[in-house]
Queue: 2 jobs
Job 1
Amino acid sequence: MSRSCLALILAAGEGTRMRSPLPKVMHKVAGLPMVTHVLNVSVDAGCTDIAVVAGNGFELVSSSVSASHPQSQIFEQTERLGTGHAVLAARAAIEKGTDDILVLFGDTPLLRPGTLSRMRSELAEGAAVVVLGFRADDPTGYGRLLEDDSKLLAIREHKDASDHEREVDFCNGGIMGLAGAHALELLDAITNDNANKEYYLTDVVEIANAKGFSVTAIEAEETEVMGVNTRNGLADVEALWQQAKRHEMMTAGVTMQAPETVFLHADTVIEPNVMLEPNIFFGPGVTVKANARIRAFSHLEGATVGEGAEIGPYARLRPGANLAEGTKVGNFVEIKNADIHQGAKVNHLTYIGDAEIGSEANIGAGTITCNYDGMNKHKTTIGINAFVGSNSSLVAPVTIGNGAFVASGSVITENVPDNALGVARGRQSNKPNYANAIRERNAALKQKRSKS
Ligand code: UD1
Ligand code: CA
C-alpha cells in the first residue's frame, strides 16, 4: 500500500546575504535553480503532492516552479514571520490530508531522495514528527536537537539556547516530516514567544511531545542539508554537486582524466566507456553516446555526440548539433543546428550552422557555412561522401550534391550537382621571372634610402 505525501517547499526568504536582485532559490546549481533541485528530489522520493511557498520574487519563483513542475500548488507568504508561519501559508494543501508531509527548504539542493524515504519510513511506523539532523563541525547558528536517550525532546534555536545547550553538535538540518493526520493540530499551536518573535516550525517538536505523540530524529551527512546563504556558499554547494555527479558517472564507466576540471549540467547524459579529457564544459541538454571521446577544452550545449565519435580539442557544439556515430569534429570548430551523419569529418577551423552533412563527407579546414543574411537563417546541405576543399564559403541556401567536390577557396553561391566539381575563385596566372624583377626593384629602393 503506497502512502500519499505532500512536499511543502519553503522558498519565500529574502536571501539578503546573496546581495542579488534574483530571489535566492532561483540561483543555479548545475544549471538549474536550487528550487528545481528540491522539486526533483521530492518527485524522486515519491511525493504525490507538491506545494511551494514563495514570497520574495514571487512572480519569478512561481513561474519557474510551474514551468518545471506544473503539478505544484503555489502559495504566497506576504510577510516573513518565520518558518512556522510560512508552512501555514500552504494550509489548503495541508488540509487535503496526505498521509505524510515533508517540509523542505528551497535553498538546500543537495538533498537525496533516499534520505526523504528514510524520513517517510519513520512516519509510516507511527512518528508524528521526524526531524533530519546532522553533526555540525561548527554548530553556530543552527537549531540544536535536544535528546534524552535518543528521544527527541526539543529543537532549540541558537539565539534561544543556553550555554550548555549550545555545546550540543547535533543540529537541525531544517527538513521535517509530519504525519498528515496531526499536522494542523501541531502547526496551529506554534506561537512567536522567542528571541526573534518568529513562528518557529521547530516548536512542533515540543508541542508534539506535550500531546504524547511520537517524535524522532534521523541523521544525514552535513553536506546533504547544506543550505545556501551567500554566493560563497553557492559555489561550495556547486562544487559538492559536481564532485558527486562525476563520482557517479565514473562509477558507471566514464573515464575522466582530470575529473575536477569537468563541469556537468544536471541533465548531462554520458554513456559508459566515454573518455573525457581535461577541461570540458557541459551546458544543458547534452548526450554523449558510448565509446565517444571528448578532447580537452571543449564546450557543449544542446548537443548529441554519437557512438564512437571524437570531438575537440577546442570544439564548440551549440544547440541542435547532432553528431552521428563515428563522426569527427576537430579543433576550433563550431557546430550549431546541424546533423552530421555517420563518419563525416569536420576537422579544423570551421563553422557549420543550419546544415546537414551527409555520411562520410569531408569538410576542409576553414570552411564556413554563410547561414545568415542579416535577417534570416538559411540551410546548407552537403551530400554523402562530398569533399569540400579548405577555405570555402558556402552561401546558404545551397546544396552540394552527393560525391561532389568543392575546390578550395571557393565562394559557392549556386548548387553543385552530384559528382560535379564546383570551382568559384579567381584563376591563377604565373608571370615567369617576375619575382627576380621585384627583388631587384626592392633592393634598389633600399640602397637609395640608406644613402639619403
Ligand atoms: C532554520 C531552523 C533551524 C535549522 C536551520 C537549518 C527554524 C525556526 N529554524 O533556521 O533550526 O538549524 O534552518 O538551516 O525553522 N522561510 C520562509 N518564510 C519565512 C521564514 C523562512 O519561506 O517567514 C524559508 C526561507 O526562505 C528558508 C527556510 O525557510 O528557505 C529557512 O529559513 P531561515 O530563516 O533560513 O531559517 P534559519 O534561521 O536558517
Ligand atoms: Ca537558513
Note: The mean pLDDT is 97.
Job 2
Amino acid sequence: MQIFVDTADLEEIKEAKSWGIVDGVTTNPSLIKKAVEKLKDKGMEMSMEEYIGEICRAVDGPVSLEVKGIKSDDMVREATILYEKFNHINNNVVIKIPISTAMNEGEELFEGVKAIKELSEKGIPTNATLVMTPCQALLAAKAGASYVSPFLGRVDDYIRERLGMKFDKWDIFDGKLLRSIEEKRREQKNSYDEASWISLSDEGIYDGVELVESIIKIYRAYNYKTKIIAASIRNAMQVRKVAEMGVDIATIPFKVIKEMVSHYKTMEGMCKFTEDVVDEYRAIFEQ
Ligand code: G3P
C-alpha cells in the first residue's frame, strides 16, 4: 500500500519524507488555507506559487492539487494552468476534481464528471475527490479518473450526525457494530426503523471503511485502472482496515502517521532495553 501524506504543510511533508515511507502528497483548498495561515503566523515570505513548487519538488511521487471552479470548463482551464505551472518541476502533478460540484438541490450535478472526462482525454491525470458513495466512484472510473478519493472520515461523520450521535472528529466509528445492532432491532420489530433508512440512503454503506471495500469490489469486477486513495482518514484503525483490503493508497494526516508508529508497550519495551544494556555489551560499540 502506498502512503500519501494528507497535508499542504511543507514542514510536515519534509519531515514525513525524511521517515522514508511517503509516496505522495494530497492537498485541497482547506489544507492550503491552513498552511497559508501557519506561514503568515511565522512571517515567512514565499508566494503561493513558490510554495506549491516547493511541495512538488519535495516529493518524488504524485502531488494532488485541487481546482477551485464549479463549471466543467472553468475546472478544465484551471487544471491546465496548475499542470502547466507545476508539472514541469518534478513531473508529479495530479489534478483534484470534485466528483460533483453542486452545492444546492437543482444545480448541475455532472460538472465534475465532465471535467474528469475531458482532462483524461487530454492526458492530464486526475483525482476524483469528495467521493462519498460507491456509485460516485463508479462514475469517476468510467470518466477516466487516474485516482478516486473516497472520504472515509466524512462518511462516518455523516452517518453519526444522522443518528444523532455525539462524537469528536478523531473518534473511531464501527459501522459493522451499527449494522449488527440494526439487524437485531429489525428482527425484533420485523420492520425497518430509522437507522435502516439512514444506511439505505447511502447505498447501504455503514461506514467509510465499508465504502472502500465496496469500491475495491466494483473496480475489480470491471478491471478499472483507477487507483483508490482512502482519504479523510482519522485514525490508525481505519488505515489497518483498508490495508487489509488491499487498497492502493491511503492518504493520511501527519498526526495519524505518527499514531501508526506509536504504542505504549513499544515505549515501555524501549525503556527496559535501554536500562538493561550491560557494560560488556556497550563496549562492543565503543571500539
Ligand atoms: O483527503 C481529504 C481530507 O483532507 C479531508 O479530511 O479530515 O477534513 O475530512 P477531513
Note: The radius of gyration is 22 Å.
